[in-house]
Amino acid sequence: MQDARTELLQRMALFGGIRADILQFLLAFCPVVAVPRNEFFFQQGEEGDALFVLESGEAAVLKSWGGQDHLVQTLSVGDCFGEMAVMDHCHRSASVQAVHDCTAIRISSSDLYRVYGQDVKQFALMQMNMGREVSRRLREANDRLFRVQMGSPDAISDHFFNA
Question: What pTM was estimated for this model as a whole?
Answer without folding.
Answer: 0.86
